[in-house]
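User: Predict the structure for this protein chain, please.
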Amino acid sequence: MEKIFNGRQYQPVSYGELKPRKEENPDIVWSIEHKFQIAETPTYTGKKIPLQKPYKFMFYLDRKMKVLRAETSYSD
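Assistant: Here is the predicted structure, written as structure tokens:
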């Protein structure tokens, strides 16, 4: 398994509400969104400038709250 934010600082922003879902997959009945930021330090003109990049995870759960699927995206 790969660590997707290896060695970078993680900061939670918000945890969304548990929401009922209706999908093609009948096993998925809930979803919850989690927003967070990851610290990155790109180099611009020889200087390291810390940036907070916003990301979002969406978790899809079954009736017993087991995660069946997760998606992540970078959000501006």
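The mean pLDDT is 84.
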